Amino acid sequence: MQKWAICKVVERKVKRMNRLEKFGIVPECSFLEGMNACLISTVPQGFYDKVEEGSIILKRCSTFHFCKEGVLLNNNDSESPSLINNDLVIFATGFKGDQKLKHIFSSPKFQDYIMAPQSDTLVPLYRECIHPRIPQLAIIGFSDSLSNLYSSELKCRWLAELFGRKFMLPSIQDMEKDVSTIDNVTRKNSNHDSKTCIGALHIWHNDQLCIDMGWNPKRKNGFWADWFEPYGPMDYTHP
């Protein structure tokens, strides 16, 4: 309840500060939902000022088509499509990381380990790094967080400690149980199943990595700092 209330306050402030209602780009999902699904993003300083002055034009559409003059944008709420005259289009299609991981292997058995046909779980990774049934394969950067760079750096440190035999992996059954528990938590808090997101569990996840490596998970100097100061990359620069 406390988390929901805080997110509602932040959501209202972000809407007002960035004038989202004025520009007609209020997201369909709540701030809490977006955070749990790693759909929260940042924009350059002054971005919405540029939108206000008209040098950046925002358009919402349900579908689009290329034509000789540019791009046709179709909106379900509009009777006729709008034409955008342009010379250059950057088509950012994204990619399906789970499919790419799956097709690393030619063996159907190992492909099913990555993406089981009847499973709702995305790529099941212990500590978002190691597949319980393919422990020789380490995957960095597949799961999203609110700060991917330092999250990936900490996972790399975790892997280095693992390869150095500073700690050992649990049994396959224990790792799969842990993956299933985290998957249930992330799905409970998000309606978006396109990717794995640990945004709402980021500090807890880092705590687990620290405990594995024998580090103290309380990274701040003092009780009040640990509870109320934000955690960031500099908190994990040393054991």
From TrEMBL:
Keywords: FAD, Flavoprotein, Monooxygenase, Oxidoreductase. It holds the Pfam family FMO-like. Gene3D superfamilies: FAD/NAD(P)-binding domain. Its cofactor is FAD. GO terms for molecular function: flavin adenine dinucleotide binding; monooxygenase activity; N,N-dimethylaniline monooxygenase activity; NADP binding. SUPFAM superfamilies: FAD/NAD(P)-binding domain (SSF51905). Its EC number is 1.-.-.-. PANTHER family: DIMETHYLANILINE MONOOXYGENASE. Belongs to the FMO family. This is Flavin-containing monooxygenase. The gene is LOC110794243.
